[in-house]
Amino acid sequence: MDEDRHVGGNLGSLSPPWGSDDLAPHTLRKLLGSYPTGVAIVTTSASDGRPVGLTINSFASLSLDPPLVLWSLVNHSPSLAVFRDCAHFAIHVLPREHEELARRFANPAVVDKFAELDLHITPEGVPVLHGAVTTLVCANDHSRHAGDHLLMVGRVVRTSSTPGVPLVFHAGRFTSLHAVQAAPDKHS
C-alpha cells in the first residue's frame, strides 16, 4: 500500500502521522513517562544480614498460576548483586502518604534507608515495611539481563494488604489517583 490510511477516531496528532524514529534515551524516558505506574519499594537482606531496599516503578503481574511477579533494576545499581543473589525479597506497593519514603529509597546517596523505620522480619529473613497497600514476599525465581536492566521474577509466597490509595509516578513526578477509593474485596 502506497498511502497512509486514517482509521477510526482522532486520538490526537502525531507528527508525522506514523510517529517519530527518535529513540534517544531522554526521548524514550519522556514518552514512557506518559504511562502512569505504581510506586513500590523492594527489600531484601544482604548476605551479612543488613537490610537493602530501593524504589521501583517497574513492577508487574506476570502469572497467577503459579503466582509470579516481575520487576527490574538498572544494571549499574549498587544493589544489583544483592537482589540478583538473594533467596527472597518483598515488594511493597506504597500508599500516597509514603512519597517521602519512596524518595528516600530512590536516592542512592542515602546511606541508611531503613533508619528509624519499624521493620518486621519474615520467616524467610526479609525486612518488611509497615503501612504498604500491598506487600508481596517472593522467592527469587530467576533473573535475566535485558538491555540496560536486570529483570527479576519472583514467586509470591505470602501476601498482606491494608486499605489505601496507591502512590503513582507519572510524567516524572509522584502523584495519586484522586478518584480512586479502596474497593471492597469481592472475594471475602
From TrEMBL:
<dbReference type="GO" id="GO:0010181">
    <property type="term" value="F:FMN binding"/>
</dbReference>
<dbReference type="InterPro" id="IPR050268">
    <property type="entry name" value="NADH-dep_flavin_reductase"/>
</dbReference>
<dbReference type="GO" id="GO:0042602">
    <property type="term" value="F:riboflavin reductase (NADPH) activity"/>
</dbReference>
<protein>
    <submittedName>
        <fullName>Flavin reductase family protein</fullName>
    </submittedName>
</protein>
<dbReference type="InterPro" id="IPR002563">
    <property type="entry name" value="Flavin_Rdtase-like_dom"/>
</dbReference>
<dbReference type="InterPro" id="IPR012349">
    <property type="entry name" value="Split_barrel_FMN-bd"/>
</dbReference>
<dbReference type="Pfam" id="PF01613">
    <property type="entry name" value="Flavin_Reduct"/>
</dbReference>
<keyword id="KW-0560">Oxidoreductase</keyword>
<feature type="domain" description="Flavin reductase like">
    <location>
        <begin position="32"/>
        <end position="176"/>
    </location>
</feature>
